[in-house]
Design a protein that fits this description.
The structure holds two protein chains of two kinds. By secondary structure, chain A is an alpha+beta fold. Chain A contains 13 helices and 14 strands. In chain A, strands 2-1-5-4-3 form a five-stranded antiparallel beta sheet, sandwiched between helices. In chain A, strands 11-12-10-13-14 form a five-stranded mixed beta sheet, with helices on both faces. In chain A, strands 6-9-8-7 form a four-stranded antiparallel beta sheet. Chain A is rod-shaped. Chain B has seven helices and five strands; from the N terminus they run ααβαβαβαβαβα. In chain B, α6 (107-117) links the parallel β4 and β5 (123-126). In chain B, strands 1-5-4-2-3 form a five-stranded parallel beta sheet. Classes of the chains: A alpha+beta, B alpha/beta. Chains A and B meet through α1 of A and α1 and α3 of B.
């Protein structure tokens, strides 16, 4: 046989339901904690997003100012006579005056030179080739126009070519801002580029936002698509806003620090509130659910089990009380119907098992049970008990001559007569076997028993059932053996029956059609053997 | 957080006063009868195709000095008379182009009307003016 480590039958419904509810409670708590964490992250992201937008707006403002100042400077330079006249397209060398013009802002200053960090001025031909660059400023810039600006500039046609261009770009010297304007006015002959360092202007964002902003070069793989925040220290987050160069690559990262202690406290309070609310609601729901389950599911089942157990213990047909939900009502009703059917069938079976089918009297089994029971009872109470064993005289001859059907009819008729004579409820008339009958008479002494035997004899005689083959009469007659005593040994009722049988034998051997009460002398050994305490035994009685 | 909200509010509302102020400013007419209205691109084409074109900036001198269209002269509309114009133009048949600050400025429209009254046959009016020119990032001269 295979042994299982765990058996579902060993678990009670109450335990399983309780376990399920506890698990649900734990899941709800974990979910609540997880929801609080998600809420905190979302709230923080939303905060970062808002701040990032603020930084973006401020940055846009700063860069627009840089563009305007650069444009002002560029057109100022382009208006210099050396440049305003236009670039000679075929000159192989650059005129000194042009170089001087490009250097002018570095040594002579320019309008708003305190608001702009000029790094370089450069001059290009119409095809984008570098003609000259200022001798001052950054020395190691690449010798060509910023790639993204050149791409835009050279693909333009017509009047569009006169429009100024600007943008951030990554150089070998870091991120720079360039603005390109046409040289030669409307009669375009080249381009002038003003290169400035935007990091000079970006700190102004701090004045606009009143937040500390740190500017750094962006790394190539910086994630600039959405809010990018991280904890710098407990209660302090850093939010990155990435400026994109004209070629689409990250150029500068503006990192803002924001103290979120108060914000986190608010979020924590909200999380705790949510947690407690959910705990309360879930707890109430679980307790309510468990109470309902207990009341309408578990207790009804337990009560039904108790009812059934009580019925089994007491061997009584106690109906199971209907209670709980609809299904339990139905189950209890069906169970009661089933039990009623079982009891009914058992009662029929009991009746059948204790009744003689032919005569309708009690059968031998019922007689034995009754005899034993009454014998014991009389023992306990010191009461007399009497027994009549009755045999139909020459019944075999009757059967042989009249047939078994007629014989059965006689048995039925005699049985009916016996039943009619036995009037007390505690008396029992039974078919003892074949043509023999027995009558148990509790609380009846020898005189009454003798009278009863006489009454029976008289009733049969009166019935005048024809029996042509009888040697003693023309009608059916009976031989009756009578025994009576006050028993004192509970285990010897069989001896008492034997005494009655012996009396019957005497009645039959004495000529039949008579009742014989066992005489003390003739049944001495029987009396001794059976320890019957009957003080005076009646004389043999013959009834004609 | 309160600081950020205030800043956002400032950013948003900073656009309101100019807008409200603009509502009270005069609006230049859509058209001046007998005068050809141009946009920035048409102005450039006109300048390049007619070298004899006289471009007249009718804004105040400070504005002119901060930047103007290449080749433009400064002649405030209130100081514009038949004589001063004739002095600058030299020739009554010379084409004229007037511009001022833009749509919210009526100076150039008034100047165009005056020039028309004085018998100049070919008058152009750049209604978008300096605002449109700068917005489109076309070259300026200081």
């Amino acid at each position: 046989m295979q042994h299982r480590l765990f058996s579902i039958e060993s678990l009670s419904t109450r335990f399983v339901v309780g376990l399920v509810f506890v698990l649900l409670g734990i899941i709800a708590l974990l979910q609540s904690l997880y929801a609080g964490s998600i809420y905190r992250d979302h709230a923080m992201t939303a905060e970062a997003k808002t701040l990032q937008k603020v930084i973006a707006v401020a940055t846009e403002g700063v860069l627009e100012e840089v563009r305007q100042l650069s444009q002002e400077l560029a057109y100022h330079l382009a208006s210099k006579p050396a440049l305003a006249a236009g670039l000679p397209q075929d000159a192989s060398t650059v005129a000194e005056s042009i170089l001087d013009a490009l250097d002018t802002p570095f040594h002579s200053g320019f309008p708003n030179n305190d608001r702009l960090n000029l790094e370089k001025t450069r001059l290009y031909r119409l095809d984008g080739r570098l003609v000259a660059s200022s001798r001052q400023g950054l020395a190691e810039l690449p010798k060509e126009m910023p790639e993204s600006l050149a791409e835009q500039l050279l693909t333009r046609t017509g009047i569009q070519r006169l429009q100024a261009l600007s943008g951030l770009w990554k150089s070998n010297q870091g991120t720079l801002y360039s603005l390109i304007v046409p040289v030669g006015g409307l009669r375009l002959s080249g381009y002038l580029e003003v290169v400035v360092n935007p990091r000079f202007n970006l700190p102004k964002i701090e004045d606009l936002t009143h937040l500390p902003v740190q500017v750094s070069e962006a790394v190539a793989d910086t994630n600039w698509s959405g809010p990018n925040w991280r904890y710098l220290s407990p209660g302090l987050i850093g939010i990155d806003h990435v400026l994109i160069a004209d070629n689409g690559q990250p150029a500068l990262t503006l990192t803002t620090q924001l103290s979120v202690e108060a914000f986190e406290r608010t979020v924590l309070q909200a999380s705790i509130f949510l947690f407690l609310t959910q705990l309360l609601i879930t707890g109430l729901a679980l307790v309510g659910g468990y109470t309902l389950m207990l009341r309408f599911l578990i207790r009804p089942v337990q009560a039904m089990c108790d009812d059934i157990q009580h019925g089994i213990d007491t061997k009584q047909q106690t109906p199971v009380q209907t209670r709980g939900l609809n299904e339990f009502h139905t189950l209890a009703s069906l169970f009661n119907r089933l039990m009623k059917d079982i009891h009914h069938n058992r009662s029929i079976l009991e009746t059948l098992s204790l009744t003689d089918e032919l005569t309708g009297l009690a059968n031998r089994r019922a007689f034995n049970a009754m005899m034993e029971r009454e014998w014991h009872r009389c023992c306990r109470h010191g009461e007399a008990i009497s027994l009549l064993l009755i045999d139909i005289d020459y019944f075999k001859k009757y059967n042989d001559s009249a047939g078994h059907q007629a014989g059965d009819a006689v048995l039925r008729q005699v049985g009916r007569l016996l039943d009619q004579q036995v009037k007390r409820s505690e008396d029992l008339a039974a078919r003892y076997g074949g043509e023999e009958f027995a009558v148990v008479l509790p609380k009846v002494d020898k005189d009454a028993a003798t009278n009863m035997a006489e009454c029976i004899q008289q009733a049969v005689r009166t019935a005048r059932i024809p029996h042509p083959d009888s040697d003693v009469s023309e009608c059916i007659t009976l031989s009756i053996g009578i025994a009576s005593c006050i028993p004192n040994d509970p285990g010897r009722h069989d001896c008492f029956i034997e005494c009655a049988d012996k009396a019957l034998y005497l009645a039959k051997s004495g000529g039949r059609n008579q009742s014989v009460f066992m005489q003390k002398s003739s049944m001495h050994h029987c009396v001794e053997q059976c320890a019957l305490s009957q003080p005076d035994w009646a004389e043999r009685t013959r009834t004609a | 957080m309160k600081r950020l909200t205030l800043f956002l509010l400032l950013i948003t509302t900073s656009w309101l006063p100019p807008s409200l102020a603009q509502a009270d400013k005069p609006v230049a007419p859509e058209q001046v009868p007998g005068v050809t209205r141009l946009n920035a691109e048409q102005v450039i084409e006109l300048i390049l195709s007619k070298p004899e074109l006289l471009i007249i900036d009718v804004r105040i001198k400070d504005e002119y000095d901060k930047g103007h269209i290449q080749g433009a002269i400064n002649l405030l509309d209130t100081e514009l008379t038949a004589d001063t114009l004739a002095q600058q133009a030299g020739d009554q048949q010379r084409p004229l182009l007037f511009y001022c600050n833009g749509e919210r400025c009526k100076r150039s429209a008034n100047a165009s009307r005056k020039a028309q009254d004085w018998g100049y046959p070919e008058i152009y009016w750049f209604r978008g003016g300096w605002v449109e020119w700068r917005r489109k990032n076309y070259p300026v001269t200081h």
